[in-house]
């Protein structure tokens, strides 16, 4: 009996088969990623358009989100390089169940919670971005499986830690300037570096510390070489640069005795070989539902531009009023409203009393607060509650009124349930094309000379408590549904006088 040996497979044929298998894996993964990204963009199309408008047109600091995406990608790449081969996932029922639960959670962020925060609270928190991140996480579970998605659990936590509310609280706590932004982003970069190089706790700690040191050095160099560098430079360069340097050193150190190629092994098959129709249908339906959910339409307060307007304090005191005491200045508001911003406070007293405003015809007292800044959008981002201790007070819905020369203003009532006081506030903003000014006139229903007025104060921690209350209980806890505008006419008359006094100086300066 003759035995014929089987022909040996040539190395070239084996190499071609390996390349074809690798291309097949890449194509399948690429299609899944493209579908997931496209559906995420579709689901949050309105929200992404709003965010782009804030960044490009209004000058918001949300451009740091782009840097966060780069950091998350770098961290995920580091995790991918550490992947080992694992068994394929056959039963996908768990993936679909968990994916549906995560999608329901994203609906809560995109619909219920986001709509609890309107106006400035929405601009500050942007919970729709948390909804987007949760939607993307649920999509990864549906497209790639729960086990592969959870392999990147630290990357998902990184995205939550980089949410706008966390970023802005840290930014304000450190001073609110460009250097503070660089330090906050360096901390996020150190977190991403720890994820990327952290094969164990020791290597993660080393990566975190090393990236932090490199980031601080980059901030110091930028500050010394170009102090006036744009905010994005402070946000991007230290964070991305530190992760790149630390990641590259760790990579070369790891590969010094092996191949320096990024993938020195064959590509592993995806844990989920095929995407089930049910999982894909859940993702598509979730995207359509999210797209149809109500979303925030932000209306920015208009800033009329008046050529020649002086936005520096103090205000010109109208003839019917006199100033009592010096003008007080608070420079710390620059943390909120940008470098050079100043809050100035003037005590104004009526020249003569009027029984229409006090039964004994005593001269009424008003507080005139002004804030000057180069960034008018920040008046919407950080409203009055951020510059006064108003924790626990209730606010009426704003009422739009018109002042002379077509200046739009807002009238509000604030109830202080602790002191049993009612404040009537008239505020407006205007500018000269280079700087903007916010003017707020305060009255109180206590007509005594020593009556209490809210004092300018940084209240970040109290604002957090207020935000937490609104999240759990809704904005009814801070809303006054039956406001009593006790001093409506008083503040309107004062606002008319203040506007006329400021614009009369503009007209005088324009005369030859």
Automatic annotation (TrEMBL):
Transmembrane feature ranges: 29-45, 65-84, 96-114, 120-142, 154-173, 179-197, 204-225, 231-252, 275-295
Keywords linked to the UniProt accession: Membrane, Transmembrane, Transmembrane helix
Coiled coil region boundaries: none
Entry protein name: Uncharacterized protein
Source organism of the structure: Gordonia otitidis (strain DSM 44809 / CCUG 52243 / JCM 12355 / NBRC 100426 / IFM 10032)
């Amino acid at each position: 009996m003759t035995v014929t040996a089987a022909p040996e497979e040539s190395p070239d044929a084996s190499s071609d088969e390996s390349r074809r298998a690798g291309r097949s894996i890449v194509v399948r993964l690429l299609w899944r990623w493209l579908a997931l990204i496209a559906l995420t963009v579709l689901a949050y199309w309105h929200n992404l358009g709003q965010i782009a408008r804030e960044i490009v047109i209004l000058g918001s600091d949300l451009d740091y989100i782009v840097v966060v995406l780069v950091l998350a990608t770098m961290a995920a790449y580091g995790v991918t390089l550490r992947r080992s081969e694992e068994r394929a996932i056959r039963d996908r029922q768990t993936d679909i169940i968990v994916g549906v639960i995560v999608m329901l959670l994203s609906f809560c962020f995109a619909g219920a919670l986001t709509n609890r925060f309107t106006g400035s609270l929405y601009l500050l928190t942007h919970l729709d971005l948390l909804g987007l991140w949760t939607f993307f996480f649920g999509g990864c579970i549906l497209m790639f499986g729960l086990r592969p998605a959870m392999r990147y659990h630290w990357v998902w936590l990184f995205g939550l830690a980089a949410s706008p509310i966390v970023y802005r609280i840290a930014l304000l706590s450190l001073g609110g300037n460009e250097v503070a932004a660089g330090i906050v982003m360096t901390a996020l970069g150190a977190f991403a570096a720890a994820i990327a190089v952290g094969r164990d706790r020791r290597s993660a700690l080393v990566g975190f510390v090393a990236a932090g040191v490199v980031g601080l050095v980059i901030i110091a160099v930028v500050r010394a070489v170009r102090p006036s560098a744009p905010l994005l430079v402070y946000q991007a360069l230290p964070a991305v640069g530190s992760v790149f340097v630390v990641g590259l050193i760790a990579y070369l150190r790891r590969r010094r005795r092996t191949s320096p190629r990024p993938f020195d092994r064959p590509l592993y098959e995806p844990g989920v070989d095929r995407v089930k129709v049910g999982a894909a249908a859940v993702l598509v339906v979730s995207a359509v539902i999210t797209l149809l959910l109500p979303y925030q339409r932000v209306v920015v307060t208009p800033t009329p531009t008046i050529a020649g307007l002086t936005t520096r304090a103090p205000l010109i005191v109208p003839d019917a009023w006199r100033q009592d005491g010096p003008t007080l200045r608070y420079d710390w508001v620059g943390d909120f409203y940008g470098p050079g911003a100043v809050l100035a406070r003037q005590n104004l007293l009526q020249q003569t009393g009027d029984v229409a405003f006090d039964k004994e015809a005593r001269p009424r007292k008003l507080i005139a607060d002004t804030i000057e800044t180069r960034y008018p959008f920040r008046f919407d981002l950080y409203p009055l509650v951020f510059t006064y201790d108003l924790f626990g007070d209730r606010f009426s819905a704003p009422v739009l009124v018109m002042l002379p020369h077509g200046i739009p203003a807002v009238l509000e009532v604030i109830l202080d349930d602790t002191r049993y006081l009612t404040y009537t506030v008239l505020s407006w903003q205007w500018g000269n094309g280079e700087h903007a000014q916010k003017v707020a006139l305060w009255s109180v229903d206590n007509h005594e000379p020593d009556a209490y007025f809210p004092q300018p104060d940084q209240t970040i921690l109290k604002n957090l408590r207020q935000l937490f209350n609104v999240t759990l209980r809704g904005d009814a806890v801070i809303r006054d549904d039956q406001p009593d505008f006790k001093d409506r006419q008083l503040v309107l008359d004062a606002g008319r006088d203040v506007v006329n006094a400021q614009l009369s100086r503009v007209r005088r300066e324009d005369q030859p």
